[in-house]
Each structure stands twice: as C-alpha cells, then as structure tokens.
Design goal:
Layout: E1 2-6, H1 12-16, E2 22-26, H2 30-36, E3 51-56, E4 64-66, E5 93-95, E6 97-115, E7 118-131, E8 134-139, H3 145-151, H4 157-168, E9 174-183
Parallel strand pairs: 1-3
Antiparallel strand pairs: 2-9, 3-6, 4-5, 6-7, 6-9, 7-8
Length: 185
C-alpha cells in the first residue's frame, strides 16, 4: 500500500481528528530541480481508487508522537511523562500510522505569488473523481481558495499560501497535484 507522509505541524490536529481530506503535492521532481535547476514534470503518484496509509514523520526513529506538537517520544512502552519540546503531558500520544484512506479525486492546480502577501491558484479544468465506484473525468468550475485551504487542514488561506511559499517559493508559478480522499480507518 502506498503511503502519504506528513511532518507539517500546522495540519497535525486536522490529521488526528480526520477533518483533513486532501493533500497538495508538487507536480514536478523537486530533487532534479534542486540539483540542476531543470523542471521535470511527473505523473500523479496516486490514481482515483488507490488506498493509502496516512503516516506522521515516517522516517523518524520514534514510533510514538506528542499529540500537541508532533514531537517524537521514542519507542518505550511508557513514554516520558512530559513532551521534551512543548512540556505537555504525553499520556495522550499517537503512533506513526494515523489511518487508511481511499483516493476519491485527483487534479492539478498552479499556485503563484502575485505580489507580497497576495497569492492565487488556478485549477486546471480536467480532474478525476470516483462516483459509484466508477472513475469519471470532469470539467469542474473554479473552487474557492478557502475551500482548498480548509480541506487541506489549514486554519486560513493565508496560512496555507505562506507555508507553501516558504517551502516552494511561489514567486514563479508552480504546478501541484491535489489528492482528495475518504477516511476508511
């Protein structure tokens, strides 16, 4: 089963309470771009109907994490009583595997920074959606930025765009895949 890994603390609560129902991922090979500055478009990692494990900090050696800040708590049967980072009680921890989802929609968007603190996204017209266990190609009307940010687990559009700008530098337009899902477990 394929995995979707998360490490961004801004969306941790939405993952844990399972209100996050999508993820936005680069539609280009980041490593090739960082290595030699060449944009290499890639195919979507997921198709409609695929199952995926939702993971937190998959590469960490820890198997238990603080529910408040996402910090690794090690692998002991009983974790330390307080988180070393946020100092909250660790009695309510979570493990790496948060749940299993079924991909229900896949589409491409482009994000860019128009000017300082002004961002926009463009949704490409065709995307794929599962309805009654059949995959359909649809032309969708534009979606509001607020809906995109909410489904992705952010508190506001500004928070989402600022994080993406910090990670991916949206001063030049960049393509992204949006994967939407339904929680199974």
């Amino acid at each position: 089963m394929k995995k979707i890994n998360f490490t961004v603390k801004e969306i941790l609560l939405a993952l844990l309470n399972k209100t996050k129902t999508q993820t936005i991922r680069p539609a280009w090979d980041i490593y090739a771009y960082k290595k030699n500055g060449i944009w290499k478009k890639r195919q979507p990692k997921f198709k409609v109907g695929d199952l995926a494990k939702i993971m937190w900090n998959q590469r960490s050696k820890s198997n238990k994490f603080c529910r408040n800040c996402g910090t690794g708590l090690g692998n002991s049967v009983i974790p330390e009583p307080f988180c070393p980072k946020c100092h909250k009680p660790t009695s309510d921890f979570f493990t790496k595997t948060i749940g299993v989802v079924k991909i229900t929609e896949v589409f491409e968007i482009e994000m860019r920074k128009l000017k300082e603190d002004t961002f926009c996204f463009i949704r490409f017209p065709t995307h794929y959606i599962e309805k009654d266990n059949v995959v359909h190609a649809l032309i969708q009307p534009p979606e509001k930025e607020e809906e995109l940010a909410k489904r992705d687990g952010f508190k506001s559009v500004e928070d989402m765009f600022k994080l993406f700008d910090k990670i991916y530098d949206l001063s030049t337009p960049k393509p992204f895949f949006v994967y939407r899902w339904r929680w199974l477990k």
